[in-house]
Amino acid sequence: MRFSSCLSRPGLHLWSALLLGAAVASPVFAQKFEGLALTPPMGWNTWNTFAGNISEPLIRETADALVASGLRDAGYVYLVIDDCWSLKERDAGGNLVPDPAKFPSGMRALGDYLHAKGLKFGIYSCAGDKTCGGYPGSWGHEFQDALTFASWGVDYLKYDWCNRGTADAHDAYKRMRDALHAAGRPVVFSMCEWGQNKPWEWAGDVAHLWRTTGDIYDSYDGRKSWEMGWKRILDLQCDLVPSNGPDGIGKYAGPGHWNDPDMLEVGKGGLTLAESRAHFSLWCLIAAPLMAGNDVRTMTPAVRAILTDRDVLALDQDPLGRQGFRALAEESHQIEIWAKELSHQEWAVCALNTGRTAADLTVEWGRLNFLHGVYDLRDLWTKQAAGDTSKPSTARVEAHDVMLFRLTPRP
Ligand code: GLA
Questions:
Q1: Is-catalytic flag, 379?
Q2: Which residues on neighbouring strands pair with residue 408, listed in sequence order?
């Protein structure tokens, strides 16, 4: 009797309170939400086309266009409002306030609109005390802001790295991860520290995706010396850690934790249609998160066809989750070959014309030593069977365009 009295109700309450306190305070219990990004997240983000010029009508019209164009059904479900959505000051209670001139109905109503359309709601903040655009960042307000986002129905947070003083990246991103977890609403956590602190080495249990480079621009190789076009960013996926061989940083990516080479420029004015097709193909080959950034309300049928191509998207979304690598580069033949391992011993192989002129590109299958035996070939852009790997494949390819094959092993 005396023993059981130790387990009397007041005693239990005391212990549960102590345990709960420890659980909340201790990082041992902190974690990211698992199971949210088993394949690379897909969606649309305001930044690449609209920057600070964002508003409630733009978001609603874009949501409608994502549905009407078939992008949502192809998998682009996260609609992410990037920088410049709030007032420049927090309210008296320290809360972030959506700019009422841009978002008169507020964020909860907008989140409800997106959810009713079968979309998910993404928003942006920053680990510093101000965002890159000079709006309030979440530094020192992480737990408060995470609760605010949860109350609006936010499903995805992009978290930037401007104005962070001497903050340690690991600590800063872990704090927001823990804040999101404490708020209790599952949120995909997208780190945006531009690869400055080698996030691929440590962010696997912090975030679902992490940017690996600075910002992308809508060109093949950058129009100004400081601009990175998509080809430069692609190369960096191998070249950032050359000691890992062709795999580069690819070996750190997989289901639930992805390298993010930045958002898509597909359909933007600085790219030819061929460059958009190649950019899209190669982002799928490197298992990139696919955040469209074009104006989907006015895109051409050709751009829509690229973004929604099921065969190419299937490479990106393959459940094995392997990031592709550069298998071969021969400047004299203006060719690069990129490859991605798929489930069920299949492969994807992409030949890029790196030259400024059309050229006959040849894929010599025998030189790709990761292939074993003979594979049947399907050309994913022409939608044709394309023979097999027993002899080289040659085709005329426009400047900065690609040939893209899916390889299925002969039984
Ligand atoms: C940084 C990010 C961009 C975008 C802007 C917003 O530059 O890398 O993707 O979010 O901030 O100011």
A1: no
A2: 376
What is the DSSP annotation of 205-272?
A: GT-SEEE-SS-B-SSSS-SSTT-B-HHHHHHHHHHTSGGGGGGGGGGG-BTTBEEE-----TT-TTS-
Q: Containing H/E element for 14?
A: helix 9-25
192 Cβ below 6 A of ligand 1: yes
Catalytic residue among 64, 112, 129, 215: 215
Residue 270: both structure tokens together? 């600085």
What pLDDT, on a 0 to 100 scale, did the predictor assign at position 123? 99
* C-alpha dihedral sign at 51, 55, 61, 64: positive
Candidates 80, 78, 85; CA nearest to 55 is 85
- Tell me whether residue 21 is exposed, middle or buried, using C-beta atoms within 10 angstroms of its C-beta: 0 to 12, 13 to 18, 19 or more: exposed
Q: Greatest CA separation found in the chain?
A: 90
Please check whether residue 274 is in contact with residue 399, taking contact to mean a CB–CB distance below 8 angstroms. Answer: yes
CB 363 within 8 A of CB 351: yes
311 and 383 in contact (C-beta within 8 Å)? Answer: yes
C-alpha to C-alpha distances, 401 to 77, 263, 279, 300, 307, nearest whole angstrom? 28, 19, 9, 19, 15
Is the confidence at residue 20, as pLDDT, over 50?
A: no
Do residues 134 and 84 touch, judged by C-beta distance below 8 A?
Answer: no
Collapsed DSSP state (helix, strand, coil) of residue 31: coil
Minimum mean pLDDT range among 3-7, 33-37, 333-337: 3-7
pTM for the structure as a whole: 0.93
160 is catalytic: yes
CB atoms within 10 A of CB 227: 16
